[in-house]
Amino acid sequence: MQQLIHRIWYQHHWAKWLLLPLSWLFGVISMLRRTLFNLGIEHATTLPVPVIVVGNITAGGSGKTPTVIYLIELLRQQGYTPGVISRGYGVDIPGCLAVNAGAKATEVGDEPAMIVARTQVPMVVGAKRVDAAHMLLANNDIDVIISDDGLQHYALARDIEIALVDGERRYGNQCLIPAGPLREGLWRLNSVDFVINNGGPAYTNEVLMSLTPAPLIQVDNTLTQQFDSQQAVVAMAAIGNPQRFFNTLSQLGYKIANAVEFTDHQAFDSAQLHTLSKTHPLVMTEKDAVKCRDFAESHWWYLPVNAKLTPEFDHALLSQLQQVAQTKKGLSHGI
């Protein structure tokens, strides 16, 4: 199914025309929802600390999680104490739930589990981001909130909006869901503060971001051996754009015997992956690795990546954040 959707959205498959009426309906519903907030019939909740939303206008992955991790580290370097909220996609969470170190992806979602494993940032997940933000503030001494996704979650007022775009696939056929990948029309980009292009080439007014790979790490985190780069591997990915991951491995010189795509956020079981890795080491993304920690075998590996953005972006973001913090009577930090 994911391959068919990819062809419709990004390869001009004829089935787009069958889905366009549903896209028009989606557009009308989205417009009515936005109008309710614009007219004040529905009210957005303003928080006492700055809120940075990291999202996109397309369905599927575009690099939000590495960007969130980058922002956490950047803000900490400047003396801020950030916290993160997220939907916890793919899991049924009653109310809100704090994400603790070692949290299982089946309980909080794969991206929140990965973010906290990497950064130990205070984080709360919940379907209603406003409630998640209130819980985060009530239980942690933080002065900035980063929302992992949520560009279309208008119930939460935001001070800075960052939209990610996949530099390879961009906006596909530029149709709304389900005929295309768009959650909102391209006009929405005119109102965000920053558009970050993951992978390039960057267009005018876009900030180029690159993802720098690090050496492979064992999924079970035993660190008992180093990877033998002469081995062929089975590569697997359950992310929005698996081919990007496979291309990265190839560019790094890894020999891929088989590349296996899964649906974004898919859960795994030990038998399924044991079968895949019978004859070759298994290499996966870091987001997939957090779902496999409890049953990982020693020859399963993951590829960490780190976001790299420009000094100009850092300066512009920090300057805007400082202004927001002062307006909200938060702490003022030097840049």
From TrEMBL:
The keyword Chaperone does not apply. Keywords: ATP-binding, Kinase, Lipid A biosynthesis, Lipid biosynthesis, Lipid metabolism, Membrane, Nucleotide-binding, Transferase, Transmembrane, Transmembrane helix. The chain crosses the membrane at residues 14-32. Transfers the gamma-phosphate of ATP to the 4'-position of a tetraacyldisaccharide 1-phosphate intermediate (termed DS-1-P) to form tetraacyldisaccharide 1,4'-bis-phosphate (lipid IVA). The gene is lpxK. Its EC number is 2.7.1.130. InterPro entries: LpxK, P-loop_NTPase. This is Tetraacyldisaccharide 4'-kinase. It catalyses: a lipid A disaccharide + ATP = a lipid IVA + ADP + H(+). Belongs to the LpxK family. The keyword Transferase applies. NCBIfam families: lpxK (TIGR00682). ATP binds at T58, A59, G60, G61, S62, G63, K64, T65. It comes from Shewanella litoralis. Pathway: Glycolipid biosynthesis; lipid IV(A) biosynthesis; lipid IV(A) from (3R)-3-hydroxytetradecanoyl-[acyl-carrier-protein] and UDP-N-acetyl-alpha-D-glucosamine: step 6/6.
